Amino acid sequence: MRYAIVIEKAGNNYSAYVPDLPACVASGATPEDAERSMREAIEMHLAGLREDGLPIPLPSSRVQYVEVAA
Fold first, then answer.
1. What integer pLDDT is reported at residue 59 of this predicted model?
2. pTM, 2 dp
3. CA distance 33 to 23
4. Residue 57: CB partners within 8 Å, gap ≥ 6?
5. pLDDT for the residue 60
6. Residue 7 pLDDT more than 90?
7. Beta carbons within 8 Å of 26's beta carbon, 6+ residues apart
8. Strand partners for 34
9. Are 17 and 25 in contact (CB under 8 A)?
10. Selection from 45, 39, 43, 48 nearest residue 7 by Cα
11. How many CA atoms lie within 13 Å of 3's alpha carbon, on the beta-carbon side?
12. Are residues 55 and 49 in contact, defined by beta-carbon separation less than 8 angstroms?
């Protein structure tokens, strides 16, 4: 599966979350670290849902950029 993630600058590090997986978050010193941590967090999150017998949410979020005049 392919989930959209959002990585944001958060003070001295970067935080990440998955819109389609509430409460699935991660952080890292760099955007690349946050992405790596997010991949691990998603895998653990999905494993936990499976263990609990809960449905796995399908990826449904779309990412698109919009250009606007500054």
1. 96
2. 0.88
3. 19
4. 20, 21
5. 96
6. yes
7. 15, 16, 17, 34, 37, 38, 40, 41
8. none
9. yes
10. 39
11. 24
12. yes
Q: What pLDDT digit, counting tens, does each position of 13-59 carry?
A: 999 999 999 999 999 999 999 999 999 999 999 999 999 999 999 99
Tell me, rounded to whole angstroms, the distance of Cα 3 from its chain centroid.
7
Q: What are the tokens at 32?
A: 């690349």
Residue 16's H or E segment, with its range, is strand 13-17
Reported as a pLDDT band with limits 50, 70 and 90, residue 70 is: confident
> Rounded to an integer, what is the distance from CA 45 to the centroid of its chain?
11
Kindly give, in sequence order, each residue whose CB lies less than 8 Å from that of residue 39, ignoring residues fewer than 6 positions away: none
Compute the residue count for the chain: 70
Domain boundaries, the chain: 6-51
Cα–Cα nearest to 16, from 55, 30, 65: 30
